[in-house]
Design the sequence.
C-alpha cells in the first residue's frame, strides 16, 4: 500500500540530483510570473464569449487589456476596455484594474475606478481578494459587472445609481449615448 | 476507458438470468475492466495559494532552493497549505482563504 511516508522518502531520494541545476535557472523568474504562466493559459481556455484579452507585450503576462462586449442588458453593443496590471506581490495582492472606456455605470466611475469586491485588497468579509482566486475569476467578475453583478444598491458612481432609480428609460438613453461616443 | 463499459455489466446480468430461464442467450460479457481511483489521505492535496502539491515544496521555496524547509500547515478548519504560503497571507487577512473561517493553526509538519 502507498503511504505518505513512503512517497516522502522517495521524493527525498530523487530531489538531491535535480534541485541545484533546475532552481538556479528558474531563480530569476518571479513567483508572480510562474503563477501567471498557468493562469493566463487557463484564462484563455475559458474566456467568456463576450471577452477578448490582448497582451501588448507577450513577455509581460502581468500587463494586459480586456475588452468586454456585453450581449445583453443596458450596455449591449458597447465595447469596454479594461487595463489589468498584476503587481509583483501577486497573488498575495489582487490585480489592479482600470476601465479605459468612459462609461455611465453605478459600479465604475467616469475616471475608470471599479468597485468589484474580489478586487478589494482588504475586506472584512470573504468576498474580497484571496490568493485562491485567479485571473479567470477577475475576468469573469469584470464581465459580470454588465449583467449579474451590476449593482445599483451599493454604487461607486452614486449619480448613475440615483439616475437609474429616478428614471430607468433616461438612464438607458444616457448609457447608450456614452456607448455611441466612447465605447465603439 | 470509454462510456460503454458500465452498461454491459448490467446487461450481462440480465442475460444470465434469461439464459437460465429460456436458454436464449442474446450476448455474453467477455471482458470488463475495473477502474479504481486513489488520493492522498489529506483533504486538499494542492496548496490553493501557490498551486503546488502540499507534499512538494512551494513555489517560493523551489525558487530559492529551500525545499527541505518547506513544511505543511493545517488549520482547525482542516484546510492545509504550505506554511510559507499561509504565513504570508495571514499577515494580510487572518482567515482561511478557502472557507473564510478565522485561521487557527492545528498542526505544522510534513
Sequence:
Amino acid at each position: 500500500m502507498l503511504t505518505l511516508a513512503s512517497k516522502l522518502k522517495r521524493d527525498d531520494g530523487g530531489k538531491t540530483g535535480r534541485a541545484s541545476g533546475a532552481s538556479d535557472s528558474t531563480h530569476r523568474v518571479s513567483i508572480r510570473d510562474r503563477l501567471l504562466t498557468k493562469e493566463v493559459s487557463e484564462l484563455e481556455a475559458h474566456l467568456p464569449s463576450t471577452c477578448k484579452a490582448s497582451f501588448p507585450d507577450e513577455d509581460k503576462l502581468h500587463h494586459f487589456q480586456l475588452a468586454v462586449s456585453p450581449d445583453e442588458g443596458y450596455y449591449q453593443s458597447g465595447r469596454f476596455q479594461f487595463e489589468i496590471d498584476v503587481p509583483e506581490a501577486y497573488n498575495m495582492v489582487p490585480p489592479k484594474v482600470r476601465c479605459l472606456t468612459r462609461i455611465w455605470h453605478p459600479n465604475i466611475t467616469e475616471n475608470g475606478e471599479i468597485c468589484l469586491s474580489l478586487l478589494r485588497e482588504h475586506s472584512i468579509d470573504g468576498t474580497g481578494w484571496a490568493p485562491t482566486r485567479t485571473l479567470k475569476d477577475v475576468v469573469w467578475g469584470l464581465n459580470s459587472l454588465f449583467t449579474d453583478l451590476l449593482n445599483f444598491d451599493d454604487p461607486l458612481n452614486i449619480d448613475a445609481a440615483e439616475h437609474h432609480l429616478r428614471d430607468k428609460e433616461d438612464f438607458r438613453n444616457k448609457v447608450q449615448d456614452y456607448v455611441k461616443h466612447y465605447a465603439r | 476507458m470509454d462510456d460503454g463499459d458500465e452498461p454491459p455489466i448490467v446487461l450481462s446480468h440480465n442475460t444470465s438470468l434469461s439464459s437460465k430461464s429460456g436458454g436464449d442467450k442474446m450476448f455474453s460479457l467477455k471482458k470488463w475492466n475495473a477502474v479504481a481511483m486513489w488520493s492522498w489521505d489529506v483533504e486538499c492535496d494542492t496548496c490553493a495559494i501557490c498551486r503546488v502539491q502540499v507534499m512538494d515544496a512551494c513555489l517560493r521555496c523551489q525558487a530559492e532552493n529551500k525545499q527541505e524547509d518547506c513544511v505543511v500547515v493545517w488549520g482547525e478548519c482542516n484546510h492545509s497549505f504550505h506554511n510559507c504560503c499561509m504565513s504570508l497571507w495571514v499577515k494580510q487577512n487572518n482567515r482561511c482563504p478557502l472557507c473564510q473561517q478565522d485561521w487557527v493553526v492545528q498542526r505544522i509538519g510534513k
Notes: The longest helix of chain A spans residues 4-26.
